[in-house]
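User: Please predict the structure of the protein below. I'd like the answer in structure-token form so I can feed it into my own downstream comparison script.

Assistant: Understood. Taking the following sequence of 139 residues as input:
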Amino acid sequence: MSPFGRQRRVALFIAVALGAALAIASLSQPRELGIGKRKKKVMPLVVPSQKVYSLLKQIHPDMRISKKAMRVMNSFVNDQFERIAEEAGKMLSIYKKSTLTSREIQACVRLLLPGELAKHAVSRGTKALAMYNENMSSR
């Protein structure tokens, strides 16, 4: 197999992982639930490694990943998440807006990621957002 084929597979895998990170952006902070004197429930943090592993199994069911490689992927996804959030914050201040929407996130992803990687991340994020909206409308 040529090295370019392997690089392309790795790039696609990273794009899928980033798309998943964008999709879980709203779940990355713990939320407190409950009203009044009831005991407050804290939702657990969503760890990118769980999504990365499930995506790896979807794409290549027979492939495995070491703990060290998973730590690298976790760091990479968290770093990209922070970069996207920082760029989105800058964009909001430039346009004098106070609400962060999927449009700003999409623009930041297109700015920060190169070509094909950005296309895959945007399509994955759009798909996740559509699924979220569909689930929220059915409730």
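That's the full token string. Helices lie at 3-23, 48-59, 67-94, 102-112, 115-138.
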